[in-house]
């Protein structure tokens, strides 16, 4: 953390994490204000909750409507990816293009030195750069979601919760009598409150056509409800009775087919990633070894990374990885801690 007597703008959602951020920064002597970003109609309650926290903690709250930017950059991307048979991660796209861009611009506009958020991640100041690293609380670590942030954002950020476990954060909230102390953690997709993402997409694009399930033997074995209802690696709620467990191995949006695999066949040895991003701002040109995550909740796995042309790279796993899904990101870590970079999965190889 930096010296106090400086001004910090906290991204306030009304949840326990961002509320405790404000409280901790106040305790350290910072001049604190909050900002709440209204991303979609589903964020009306977020604005109200943020206002309640700001009132209790006695801070100014800025309210910024980001619905247009969020619609164009995140919701349209999210919808398009599912219709193409890929598995999107809206937070990874939102963070650099909408959320943190808006926060930094607001800090500049209103005269704040830093921006703070309730993310569980670490920032390491080294050689005039700010490196992104895994949070102390590995169960809550959110560095995967932040890998596309660059030096412009990282150099202005504070993560006050980095050294804490979630239980500690809730205890502080209770002691401070914050209204968010017992508020449950937010759901994964902030703009779809009920998490029924397929219904949400169909409400925007119309009914997704049914198609064929293809068995591991290559024959038609059933009818799927529409490709947006399924993700790679899924084995429940398929409505298929083959007398043995099967998984979604591949989704073909062109033929409108979903290919199934037997248990044990859903592992991949290699992937191609594109749109490479490096938090340090320094791309890598030589092959190297790293630890990687193939999704936010996946354990770290060793891999060989081979940079290719046009901001792409080949990722060869030391051990085959389960259900590597196109559209998700592979994030690379040095010595299991510092984020080297990452990219979006475009191809997978069994």
Task: Describe the structure concisely for a colleague.
The protein has seven helices and 17 strands.
What is the element layout, followed by pairings?
Elements: E1 7-11, H1 16-27, E2 31-38, H2 44-57, E3 61-65, H3 67-83, H4 90-110, E4 114-116, E5 121-126, E6 129-134, H5 151-154, E7 157-158, H6 166-175, H7 197-205, E8 211-214, E9 220-224, E10 246-252, E11 257-262, E12 267-277, E13 288-293, E14 301-307, E15 313-322, E16 329-334, E17 338-349
Parallel strand pairs: 1-2, 1-4, 2-3, 4-7, 8-11
Antiparallel strand pairs: 5-6, 8-9, 10-11, 12-15, 12-17, 13-14, 13-16, 14-15, 16-17
Give a written overview of the molecule.
- This protein is 25% helix and 31% strand.
- It is globular, with a radius of gyration of 21 Å.
- Strands 12-15-14-13-16-17 form a six-stranded antiparallel barrel. The chain has a five-stranded parallel β-sheet with strand order 3-2-1-4-7, sandwiched between helices.
- The chain is of the alpha/beta class.
- It has helices at residues 16-27, 44-57, 67-83, 90-110, 151-154, 166-175, 197-205, and strands spanning 7-11, 31-38, 61-65, 114-116, 121-126, 129-134, 157-158, 211-214, 220-224, 246-252, 257-262, 267-277, 288-293, 301-307, 313-322, 329-334, 338-349.
- The longest helix has 21 residues, at 90-110.
- 41% of the residues are buried.
- Strand 14 and strand 15 (313-322) form a beta hairpin.
- Helix 1 (16-27) crosses helix 6 (166-175) and helix 3 packs antiparallel against helix 4.
């Amino acid at each position: 953390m930096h010296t106090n007597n400086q001004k910090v703008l906290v991204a306030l959602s009304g949840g326990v994490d961002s509320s405790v951020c404000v409280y901790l920064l106040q305790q350290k002597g910072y001049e604190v204000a909050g900002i709440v970003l209204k991303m979609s109609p589903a964020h009306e309650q977020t604005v109200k909750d943020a206002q309640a926290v700001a009132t209790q903690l006695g801070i100014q709250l800025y309210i910024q409507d980001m619905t247009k930017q969020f619609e164009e950059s995140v919701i349209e991307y999210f919808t398009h990816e599912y219709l193409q048979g890929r598995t999107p991660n809206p937070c990874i796209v939102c963070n650099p293009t909408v959320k943190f861009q808006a926060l930094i611009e607001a800090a500049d506009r209103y005269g704040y030195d830093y921006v703070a958020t309730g993310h569980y991640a670490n920032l390491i100041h080294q050689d005039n750069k700010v490196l992104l690293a895994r949070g102390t609380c590995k169960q809550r670590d959110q560095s995967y979601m932040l890998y596309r942030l660059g030096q412009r954002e990282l150099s202005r950020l504070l993560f006050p919760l980095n050294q804490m476990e979630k239980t500690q954060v809730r205890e502080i909230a209770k002691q401070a009598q914050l209204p968010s102390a017992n508020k449950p953690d937010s759901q994964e997709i902030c703009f779809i409150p009920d998490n029924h993402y397929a219904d949400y997409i169909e409400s925007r694009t119309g009914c997704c056509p049914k198609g064929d399930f293809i068995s591991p033997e290559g024959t038609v074995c059933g009818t799927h409800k529409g490709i947006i209802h399924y993700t790679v690696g899924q084995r429940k709620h398929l409505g298929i009775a083959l007398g043995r467990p099967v998984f979604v191995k591949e989704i073909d949006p062109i033929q409108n087919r979903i290919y199934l695999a037997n248990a044990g066949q859903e592992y991949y040895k290699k992937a191609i990633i594109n749109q490479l991003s490096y938090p340090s701002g320094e791309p890598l040109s030589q092959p190297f070894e790293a630890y990687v995550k193939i999704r936010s909740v996946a354990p770290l796995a060793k891999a060989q990374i081979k940079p290719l042309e046009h901001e792409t790279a080949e990722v060869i796993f030391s051990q085959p990885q389960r259900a590597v899904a196109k559209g998700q990101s592979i994030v690379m870590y040095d010595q299991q801690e510092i984020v080297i970079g990452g990219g979006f999965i475009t191809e997978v190889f069994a």
